[in-house]
Amino acid sequence: MNKREQLIDQLLKDLDAATNGAVRFISSRTSRRSFLGKFGTFLAGMGALPILPVVRDAHAQSSDDIPDMGNPDSCEYWRYCAFSGQACSCCGGTVTQCPPGSETATVAWVGTCHNPGDGRDYLISYNDCCGKSACGRCGCHRSEGDRPVYYPGKSNSILWCFGSTSHAYHCTLARIMGVEESNVAGQ
Amino acid sequence: MAMRLLTAILVLTSAATASAQWDTVLGDALDMPETGPHWVSVRGRGIAYLLNADTGKVGGTLDISNFTPAVRPAMTRDRIYAYGSFYSRGTYGDRTDVVIGFDTATTLPVEEVEIPPKAAGIGNPGMIGLINEQFIGVWNITPAISVSIVDLDSSEFVTEISTPNCAGIYPADRGFISSCADGTVQYVGLNENGEETSRSSSEVFFDLFEDPVLDYAVPSDDGWVFMTMNGRVHEAAVENGQISISDGWSINPPDTDATDRNGMPLSSDDDWRLGGNQVYAVNSKAEVLAVVMHQGGGQESFEDSGTEVWVFSTRSQRRGYRITLDDDETVTSVQMTQDENPLLLLAVSGTIQVREPVTGRLIRTIEDLSGTIQNLYGD
Hints:
Number of helices of chain B: 1
Oligomer: heterodimer
Number of strands of chain A: 10
Number of domains of chain A: 1
Distance between the termini of chain A: 35 Å
Mean pLDDT of chain A: 72
Structural class of chain B: mainly beta
CATH superfamily of chain A: Methylamine/Aralkylamine dehydrogenase light chain
Strand content of chain A: 15-25%
Structural class of chain A: mainly beta
Number of helices of chain A: 2
Mean pLDDT of chain B: 92
Low-confidence stretches of chain A: 1-60
């Protein structure tokens, strides 16, 4: 069993362990675009992220230090490379915080996006905000690296409102979870 | 003379209005017209339209939830089934998931079975399947993946079957098949009570990372047709619990000296990709495959709407013709009725186009109607 098969096997075991909130990770080569292959995919349980093979804020730099060019209301915004939905910044929230009265899903799909501000690749977690009607503004569908729903960690064709009290979709965040290790090592 | 003319006018006026009657004060409601193989449902948000594609007329509607991705007709039972999620206060409050049976004559919900509140709120028609003409399967994701089974004879929830990393409920043999992340199609056999009795997987025939099959399949005479993101066509069939996968062929073949049926050279058309909500449709009797296509984009554009529809002969595995839409139009769904004189239906920019599948000839355009198109018969 080669490495990829091992990782797939692990994913298949992990994903259905009925453990909402736990980290599920698999490294994978997901796209023809080379930078997408660096991180792989996971279902982001928000509580245990330090085990991810990416450098978190404490080890690299705080998200405040990350150059953040672009307009979060625009589909062209760099964090939205694998985005699908409506931008929360257009609905009373921000790119990282849900609008008033909505609830952040604790599980998300991810993408790896290239930040033009520093030329590095970042792992982005796309958390849905739920419990209110769809915002209906600033729709965006870029979906880089998207896979079918049988591979949930890389599929945006799912209502990602898991862990919230309602699965009514409102809008989507784009939160920076880490920076690619090779980027940091090369600094 | 004038008197005679006036009399004639009065007679004609009387004749013209003779068929009209006073409307009743209270009004009344119709039953659904008789349906046939050219009837389809078109799912809008919170409603499904029942459409006669032969006339372009909507015969009735079904009230579905905002979390209902598709319906599942069971015309031999005089029912159309759907599942839905309902909150006690619209988008919040207590959640209840149910499978609903709609009477095909009145369109009213007449059956309801509560299921675990795990049903996928969005998706394609593969999220709900009619198995063995007796059970409804509902695809769940929490994100753990499973299938809820409802017995239509007893109107009871039977069980929940775990189907890790597999999607779709496509009835086959005595159970259903799904496409899976490990590159296989999985078969789950059910007994007469709707409980799992067997499970098997096909050989690995695709690679999740290189060229995965879509989580969408359409029926053929022998089984189900799957397509990969790069346009490879495979047919899956189940016999005695064993799955067979056809060798497959590509709608984007390598450059060859071959020509299409019009004698035009075939090229690989590398810059074109399939994409949409219902990306392709097959009619085995007419030996036709229709695929929604757009130019440019990577594999991830598999949900993007199309600007053309490519139509292939499944016998020769060659493209017969292309439908090119107007500049301001895009197509999201394609469907074909499953009878011997099929119709090709396209969801195009808020309308439904009805075409002749072998030639592509436009028969009619139905305005102000669009969404997921499903056959009432034959799917």
